[in-house]
Amino acid sequence: MSPAPHLRYNGTTAGDVPPILPRIPSKQSAMTATPIRRQYLRIKRQHPDALVFFRLGDFYETFDDDARVVAQELEIVLTSRPMGGSERVPLAGVPYHSLETHLARLVSRGYKVAICEQVGDPTGRGPMEREVVRVVTPGTVLEPTMLEGKANNYLAALAPDGDRAGLARIDISTSDFATTQLSLQDALMELERLRPAEVLVAAAGTNEALPLQRLGATITPVSPDWCDPEAAHRALLEHFGVATLEGYGCEHLPLATAAAGAVLRYLQETQKGALRSVVGLATYSCADYMALDAPTRRNLELFQAGRAGTAQGSLLSVLDQTRTPMGGRLLRGWVSQPLVQLAPLEARLDGVEALVRATVARRQVAALLGRVGDLERLVNRVRANLAGPRELLALRRSLEVVPELQAEVAALSTTEGPHPPVDLPAGAVAVCRELAALVERAIEDDPPASLSDGGVIRPGFATELDAVRRAAQDARDYLAGLERGERERTGIKSLKVGYNRVFGYYIEVSNAYRRQVPADYQRKQTLVDAERYFTPELKEYETVILNAQERGGEMEGLIYRQVCGQIAEAAEAVMAVAAALAQIDVLAALAEVAVRNGYVRPALNEGDALRIVGGRHPVVELALEPGAFVPNDVSLSGGEEQILVLTGPNMSGKSTYLRQVALIVLMAQIGSFVPADHATIGLVDRIFTRVGAQDDLATGQSTFMVEMVETANILHHATPRSLIILDEIGRGTSTYDGMAIARAVVEYLHNHPRLGAKTLFATHYHELTELAQLLPRVKNYHFAVAEEEGRAIFLRRLVPGGADKSYGIHVAQLAGLPRPVIGRAQEILAQLGTLAPATGHTRLVRRRSSQAEALRQALRVRSPH
């Protein structure tokens, strides 16, 4: 791989790099450098595109232009030090214990950071050996503080070939590794769904035009050789130790294999320790899921809501009552990929219903899940040799809950009615019990944060370690009594026994008592007003303590690694349990939401009819007082009521109604109960939405252009099984152009033999209600409005027929427009109203000139006299 230095491609081209470009120091300067400097220069040449964090004692140091970048980005002091000859090298360092904080800041800004650790023998001659143990990039983060608990952190690879592409993605923190082969357009849509932190693409000119900037991800160019299908195939076979990829589903999918191979090669280059967690590869097809494009996810506010784009107010914020990070990630995946197959959906709904009925069990399961940590990420931290003692403690406490959860789930299977489609395998549960017992025997209940602090391994676990600790404690006990004994022996009441890291243990006597110092005291250090001494016996005990500390530290490290090794060997069983717990967590969360909010189980089938009685918007109804939301029905089918033309004023409830129908369908197809009195839903393959006004200045597209592009996408890709939500098509241009386009769209949806999609079409063009008389599957509905003393009262109730007027001035009045503006608008409307109301598009065009003249008369500025 030969990318530009310090890749920062967040929505940029390959030529856009940070303002400070690091460079490798010249060979000439290396010739006169110190041994440490030469070691650093060698490592930097191996990782020219990363900031090298070079471990020196308790600090990670950076040098040269790396130091300038780090000092600028982290806002720390840039210093310098001599490292051979007369050269002073720029230097910026951070304490080792605060590494995660600084990593988070650098990686979030698109930098790669190479972590260079001390791996050699500290007692050897020459500089301690060092090597890069991992390169941290946005898509390869393993640090818990840098990861969102309930969201995956994906590294993706795109391998395009003409109009086809392979796409692979991995979350190395959870071992979620999968690949697929599909059209290039669908691959780009899948990337938008995944929202990866980093995307690998072959560094070839053909890929520079790919619209990846929208992703907001770090785009990392890699060698085209990494995406070669044959080379990738060999790499995957070698990694998994198999003779064929048939078992992984991608043996005959060369582009999917190429993308997966690129991911594997990148991990080999950057995350050698994490490769142990890459134990499986899934091949999936997007045809198994409902396709949701970016506008639909945005318009339905599945994950973000409002202008600020926050999670609050989104569908996920309503549904996510999960108690574990694994469950939260799984629920997010379900919402982003609704199913289109009946059998798995019915299984999910059975699980939700079982937990809805079993109130006590549901609450008990939720309480137990609340004690479970992030098993997937904890285990993978262990496999990558990154887990600290407290993470092992968190793992133990999580594993201890598993047998109790197994009993609760098993009890549900003995009740009448539907059962959860989840089973905690007895063998895996037994492994969890054994691992919990191992950690309990090995690790202290309140261990230090770092292994280097000592005191991690519990007494009694390792006999040899206990013996070393006893020897050290005996020596400390001797030294504890030495001060008192020497004061009595010498008569020097101010005598002190102390220790420092430079001179070791010593006996300190002030100069006033120098004449009373015994002959067996040997001078060690002279102070301004005192002398420090040692005795052969003190030196002997010091050696015992220091040797015991060193030996004990080595033994603790070895034992700790052995414990972690045993956990890593059993990781697959733990991951299987974690996957089952995640599914139980999601089902219990959906059941809890259903009970709280009065949702019902939808009746699903493979027909094309959509019947909802008393449907409600799952988010809006929670924002109102209980009972304040007005429910509405919907009836759609390809053969009878295919297109509903909805009219009515702004603020009457059209937009809420459009979204609630789509959300109810989506919720049903993730396996959730739905906010309605009753719902019968024929499975849909896609939900399309064209809602709201939004421009795209980055690509030079106006609001109307965006509207037309999104509408074109719908008309080209909808099928008879799709659900289409269209709100105010044609409003971004002139009245007549917009009305013509809107009418043509409705006719196309109705008449084209490939379509027949169920459609909700909201419009302010009342003239479109005429289509119900011309097209048999078009029906008119409107939202009722009552007038009282000149004010509009929005009833929020959907009723048959078209609306008689728009009430736009009433809405403007509610919005607070100045009274003169409202009054003048009413005058203009009255003058326009003298024209006979148009009843069809043809008559409107015919009367265009007369209406235009009337409008000019109405808008003519009145004389101030």
Topology (SSEs and partners):
Layout (H helix, E strand, L loop, with lengths): L26 H5 L3 H12 L4 E6 L2 E5 H11 L4 E4 L5 E8 L3 H10 L4 E6 L11 E7 L18 E7 L2 E8 L4 E8 H11 L3 E5 L15 E5 L6 H12 L13 H17 L11 E2 L10 H6 L15 H5 L5 H12 L5 H16 L1 H11 L5 H9 L5 H24 L13 H17 L20 H28 L5 E5 L3 E7 L11 E5 L3 E5 L1 H34 L1 H27 L5 E3 L4 E6 L4 H4 L8 E5 L6 E5 L6 H15 L9 E5 L4 E4 L12 H15 L5 E5 L7 H17 L6 E5 L8 H4 L3 E11 L2 E10 L7 H8 L3 H14 L8 H6 L1 H12 L6
Parallel strand pairs: 1-5, 7-10, 9-12, 10-11, 17-21, 20-24, 20-25, 22-23, 23-24
Antiparallel strand pairs: 1-2, 2-4, 3-4, 5-6, 7-8, 8-9, 13-14, 14-16, 15-16, 18-19, 18-21, 25-26
Describe this structure in words.
With 865 residues, the protein is α/β, with parallel strands linked by helices. Helices cover 42% and strands 18% of the residues. Helix 13 packs antiparallel against helix 18 (571-597). The chain starts with 26 loop residues before the first helix and ends in a 6-residue tail after the last helix. The model is unreliable at 1-22, 836-849 and 861-865 (pLDDT under 50).
